[in-house]
Amino acid sequence: MHSKGIETEPLISPNNHRSYNANTNGDVENALKSLSYSEKITFTWSEVNVFTLESTKPKRGFLGCGFGDGHINGQGKQILKNVNGIARPGELLAILGSSGAGKTTLLNVLTARSASRMVVSGLRCANGVPISSNALTSKLAYVQQDDLFIGTLTVKEHLIFQALVRMDRHIPYKQRMERVNEVIIELGLSKCENTTIGITGRIKGISGGEMKRLSFAAEVLTNPSLMFCDEPTSGLDSFMAMNVVQVLKRLAQLGKTVVCTIHQPSSELYAMFDKILLVAEGRVAFLGTPKEAELFFASLDAPCPPNYNPADYFVQLLAIIPGREESCKQAVNMICDGFARSDYGVKLAVEAATVEKEEYKFGDYFNGRRKTTPYKASWCTQFGAVLWRSWLSVIKEPLLIKVRLIQTFIMAAVVALIYFGQILTEEGVMNINGVIYLFITNMTFQNLFSVIHVFCAELPVFLREHRNGMYRTDVYFLSKTLADLPLFVAIPVITICICYFSIGLNPDASHFFTAAGILVLVANAAVSFGYFVSCLSSSVDMAMSLAAPMMIPVMLFGGFFINLDSIPKYFQWLSYLSWLRYGYEGLMVNQWSDIGYINCTGSETCPKNGSVILDIYHFSVDNVTADCISLLGLICFFRIMAYLALLLKTYTIE
């Protein structure tokens, strides 16, 4: 098997093989060429069948180029049935069909994104050469129906981040930024390049049409040869929809192969498509130009009425109407069979099944030299880019900065006023013990729920970008936790600065700094637990539902509601997972360890000094260091568990 070039080389045709020396200059040269030139690819698929999981698992095709080639026992529901198709460079192909016809399933199969619970068979070819899933995903752009962004970034900041993690690692930074500016102009985003993307209901941002164009812009940064879009006009008004399709048309005119699914296009949109693929009941009902579609249906004695939107007519004709399922299915099968027998269908079957046998014999030329990593950027580049974006997200997020800081100041001021000027009497001791526990519970809940809301909201963005091979899981998790750290240090420090001396806690400076350090550890232990719960959950609501009951033992075994020595043996292990336990003991020892006298005039139950108070709670002066180490241990433990849960989530989705 001979080499077909190196991994950074643009796609080449089977008849024009070139090779380059694998040195740095060659890598940079090839990477830069890929931005100005992309191979024109004719993409074909033949005999595509998709079954549900009840079918037997597929076997890998030769060199991984086939979809499945496995035996299918026919027990599962068949979603796609012997689907053939072809998409050519310079053409905009629209996949039309009623809901449930199989449009999105077909698109996912073509882009190697079919669900793990599907059994898929068939063959994909690029320029007549079977292409593996790994090779295909590195050469295509896929714009999904839902636009997911970090809403606090501007349009240009988002594209800069995309350029850093998507583009070949050998491309210099200057060329990346030039490419960003080019794409902004090409996609008509110049007027909003410095506008915040926005978060629905919280931050005003760009329009829906601009969001969709931004999705296109991120995908075309690497100048891909193939482009797939899942219902790009969904949720847009007619003007915005027209604008989006014009962008797709313009991309096709640049020589790209563009395929999209469309739901209920207007007659104006329909006229812009170069080819249409009609799908019904998982079968191909037609593939050709819009004009050919009208001629084909007219030949079946089902002509499109005058002054009627052909797209609406074809979709309605191929729809399965409730209450008339059998007759509709018979009509659909008749149309699909008619297309398969027609000149259009016969020609399509031949073109889709054409494989360059000689090329196939020597292997998949798209693979060339196997990549050792699916990521375009190095680990350090990924880390720097994700950390930069995470930090921007933190400092530009009003929920995290403005509201959180205002909340912290107000809460601390209220607590300071309520407990102001405590003196060392029996009542003062009770109040001080209570406010110390209030410190750690407030730091716990304030930071825990903040993390859950923000981290869960970003998880869908991470999962999509990770699946697209933009950055590693460890890069995201480490960057996110480092970017959040300054805020979760500032909040407990602000709280202790406002409250400590106002309340009348131990005035020694060393005790003040010790209290601040312990409170920072408590806050970050709660944050770590919040990461863990968020990574276990699929939504904010689910995370909140999980966190509430899981916090009950953490609070109960914190040392305030029940003496630690009184905890039943079968529950004692839970107390070691309570950061409130270590935080409360540390702060109590810090407060009372060197208090030699308490004014207990007229009271026999009043503790005479700080040592008596610590004995009542069974706290030891020697445990402060151990408590701090335990808090650090819990921070590490929960973050490791959170990372493993996040890693498992990525594998589950893939």
From TrEMBL:
<keyword id="KW-0067">ATP-binding</keyword>
<dbReference type="InterPro" id="IPR003439">
    <property type="entry name" value="ABC_transporter-like_ATP-bd"/>
</dbReference>
<dbReference type="InterPro" id="IPR013525">
    <property type="entry name" value="ABC2_TM"/>
</dbReference>
<keyword id="KW-0813">Transport</keyword>
<dbReference type="GO" id="GO:0031409">
    <property type="term" value="F:pigment binding"/>
</dbReference>
<dbReference type="InterPro" id="IPR005284">
    <property type="entry name" value="Pigment_permease/Abcg"/>
</dbReference>
<feature type="region of interest" description="Disordered">
    <location>
        <begin position="1"/>
        <end position="25"/>
    </location>
</feature>
<dbReference type="Pfam" id="PF00005">
    <property type="entry name" value="ABC_tran"/>
</dbReference>
<dbReference type="InterPro" id="IPR003593">
    <property type="entry name" value="AAA+_ATPase"/>
</dbReference>
<protein>
    <recommendedName>
        <fullName>Protein white</fullName>
    </recommendedName>
</protein>
<dbReference type="InterPro" id="IPR050352">
    <property type="entry name" value="ABCG_transporters"/>
</dbReference>
<feature type="compositionally biased region" description="Polar residues">
    <location>
        <begin position="13"/>
        <end position="25"/>
    </location>
</feature>
<dbReference type="GO" id="GO:0005524">
    <property type="term" value="F:ATP binding"/>
</dbReference>
<feature type="transmembrane region" description="Helical">
    <location>
        <begin position="545"/>
        <end position="564"/>
    </location>
</feature>
<dbReference type="GO" id="GO:0140359">
    <property type="term" value="F:ABC-type transporter activity"/>
</dbReference>
<dbReference type="InterPro" id="IPR043926">
    <property type="entry name" value="ABCG_dom"/>
</dbReference>
<feature type="transmembrane region" description="Helical">
    <location>
        <begin position="405"/>
        <end position="424"/>
    </location>
</feature>
<dbReference type="Pfam" id="PF19055">
    <property type="entry name" value="ABC2_membrane_7"/>
</dbReference>
<feature type="transmembrane region" description="Helical">
    <location>
        <begin position="436"/>
        <end position="461"/>
    </location>
</feature>
<keyword id="KW-1133">Transmembrane helix</keyword>
<comment type="similarity">
    <text>Belongs to the ABC transporter superfamily. ABCG family. Eye pigment precursor importer (TC 3.A.1.204) subfamily.</text>
</comment>
<feature type="transmembrane region" description="Helical">
    <location>
        <begin position="509"/>
        <end position="533"/>
    </location>
</feature>
<feature type="transmembrane region" description="Helical">
    <location>
        <begin position="629"/>
        <end position="648"/>
    </location>
</feature>
<keyword id="KW-0547">Nucleotide-binding</keyword>
<keyword id="KW-0608">Pigment</keyword>
<dbReference type="GO" id="GO:0005886">
    <property type="term" value="C:plasma membrane"/>
</dbReference>
<dbReference type="GO" id="GO:0016887">
    <property type="term" value="F:ATP hydrolysis activity"/>
</dbReference>
<dbReference type="GO" id="GO:0030659">
    <property type="term" value="C:cytoplasmic vesicle membrane"/>
</dbReference>
<keyword id="KW-0472">Membrane</keyword>
<dbReference type="Pfam" id="PF01061">
    <property type="entry name" value="ABC2_membrane"/>
</dbReference>
<feature type="transmembrane region" description="Helical">
    <location>
        <begin position="482"/>
        <end position="503"/>
    </location>
</feature>
<keyword id="KW-0812">Transmembrane</keyword>
<feature type="domain" description="ABC transporter">
    <location>
        <begin position="48"/>
        <end position="306"/>
    </location>
</feature>
<dbReference type="InterPro" id="IPR027417">
    <property type="entry name" value="P-loop_NTPase"/>
</dbReference>
<dbReference type="InterPro" id="IPR017871">
    <property type="entry name" value="ABC_transporter-like_CS"/>
</dbReference>
